[in-house]
Amino acid sequence: xxxxxxxxxxxxxxxxxxxxxxxxxxxxxxxxxxxxxxxxxxxxxxxxxxxxxxxxxxxxxxxxxxxxxxxxxxxxxxxxxxxxxxxxxxxxxxxxxxxxxxxxxxxxxxxxxxxxxxxxxxxxxxxxxxxxxxxxxxxxxxxxxxxxxxxxxxxxxxxxxxxxxxxxxxxxxxxxxxxxxxxxxxxxxxxxxxxxxxxxxxxxxxxxxxxxxxxxxxxxxxxxxxxxxxxxxxxxxxxxxxxxxxxxxxxxxxxxxxxxxxxxxxxxxxxx
Length: 272
Known about the structure:
The chain has helices at about 15, 25-35, 50-55, 90-95, 160-175, 195-205, 225-230, 240-245, 260-270; strands spanning about 10, 40-45, 65-70, 75, 80-85, 105-110, 115-120, 135-140, 150-155, 175-185, 185-190, 215-220, 230-235, 250. It is an alpha/beta fold. It has an 8-stranded mixed β-sheet, with helices on both faces. A 6-stranded mixed β-sheet has the order 8-7-6-9-11-10, with helices on one face. The two termini are about 15 Å apart. The model has no long low-confidence stretch (mean pLDDT about 95).
């Protein structure tokens, strides 16, 4: 048995492992199955919710995998066991949900234990959740609750629409939350120290390898820490330009629509 170049593959989903239609391609499925057969750990790390990710993984025939979701606020195994949970404090979550914003151009969302909540009906969001059918409930956040909040996120029509919200968040809550972007116009807020990287470090701690034995892939600002801390971080060709600026030292690979992660993994691990 030849020694493995890496013990674990860690990948973001949208813009990275998923294709241009936000689903997992057959070539990628086959690649992950080949890696799992070689005893390589499969770890998905995403801003998405667990319900979404488990339905994506159900298409892949692997016995073991880990799902880091809501940018590190939750980790589950393939069997659905909750391994890690780090919520925003309840009153803080409610305060963030009710920050003033331009309702014409921005909508606010939360992922909480009991589902996905949104400030207004946005039917085009459904394209991201066609595998799982995971769907939002429209609520008045002024009448809502902050219990079990994994993250609060603001989506703008353009990056400029969410920029003032980021300034307010950093000024008022910068000491107690982690603020990042999953796409250029999707601003995300988690509890302090929550990131894909911290979740990854915590869940591999009992294993017989370290972050340096992991290879990772991402395309957004919520991937910066993860890509910087693993043994080999790779940036997608279609990445947020700010990620390319933040991690100029990392290798840039192909496009998610061409299933570039799978092609790259086959080359690195010698899978044909």
